[in-house]
Write a structure and sequence with these properties.
single chain, alpha+beta, Endonuclease I-creI, four-stranded antiparallel β-sheet, 11 helices, about 25% strand, globular
């Protein structure tokens, strides 16, 4: 919770021309909170946030493309879109209780992508379903369709490809946070005639969809991360320089 003075300071910085991202870095306040305060204080901002960037003749990209790239990665891994009886869709992304930081990051990204809609958590056994209702989720995630993702073709629209090209690390981070992990592997080496244990960090990404694996490796190629396909459902990143890059931009779940 933030006090009134904190809110006023953030909004004053916005009024001076600072971006939401800049104000967030200066104050430590989340972008979702800043955007929510803007929406409440300025009706014109509120009204503009209710429109969809992909329909109503707008056909633009989401307002916060970096948040969208992260959310896209989460959706492709652990997300689904379902229709309600009222013709409204709800996006649901399952996040394990073991990673509270991931739950917060997912909820913030979802709020930034649809700032005019409420994001809420639904407790399930061992996980939280981060959920948000909107009639526009199929506009924003055209990969939505019947059946499981690995049983149908998954490809990005040109506007999504451009967002991933501009924000590849956010996309990679979303995929790793959904269906990936950072682990410590070990092996033995003969040193001075004696077998010694050697440990090294490694990233894995696991998915049943060959298309989603391909989107992940394409993004890795874009940022210069070397990878290997361990088997038909696992991508491994183990080279020291590439792991260091992943650590700098992704890191372990938290």
């Amino acid at each position: 919770m933030y006090d009134l003075d904190t809110r006023r300071r953030a909004l004053d910085l916005i009024a001076q021309g600072f971006s939401q991202n800049s104000v967030s870095k200066q104050t430590g306040i989340s972008r979702a909170a800043i955007r929510s305060w803007q929406k409440r204080s300025d009706p014109s901002v509120r009204n503009s946030r209710t429109t969809c960037p992909r329909c109503d003749g707008l056909s633009g990209e989401p307002e916060d493309p970096a948040a969208y790239a992260y959310l896209l990665g989460l959706y492709l891994g652990d997300g689904c879109i379902s229709a309600s009886k009222r013709g409204v869709y709800f996006l649901r992304i399952a996040c394990a209780d073991s990673w509270p930081g991931l739950i917060d990051a997912c909820a913030e990204a979802m709020q930034l992508v649809r700032p005019g809609n409420k994001v809420f958590l639904v407790q399930r056994q061992g996980c939280q379903n981060v959920t948000c209702y909107s009639k526009h989720w199929p506009c924003l995630f055209p990969q939505h369709g019947p059946g499981k993702k690995h049983a149908r073709t998954i490809s990005l629209e040109p506007w999504q490809q451009q967002i991933v090209y501009t924000h590849p690390w956010e996309f990679i981070r979303g995929l790793i946070h959904s269906d990936g992990c950072r682990v410590t592997n070990w092996t033995t080496r003969l040193i001075g005639g004696e077998q010694k244990r050697y440990e090294y960090p490694r990233y894995f990404f696991t998915n049943l969809s060959a298309d989603i694996l391909g989107l992940f490796t394409d993004a890795l190629d874009l940022v210069g991360v070397q990878w290997k396909q361990a088997n038909k459902r696992n991508i491994s990143v183990a080279r020291r320089a590439s792991v260091a890059l992943m650590d700098a931009h992704v890191g372990p779940k938290y």
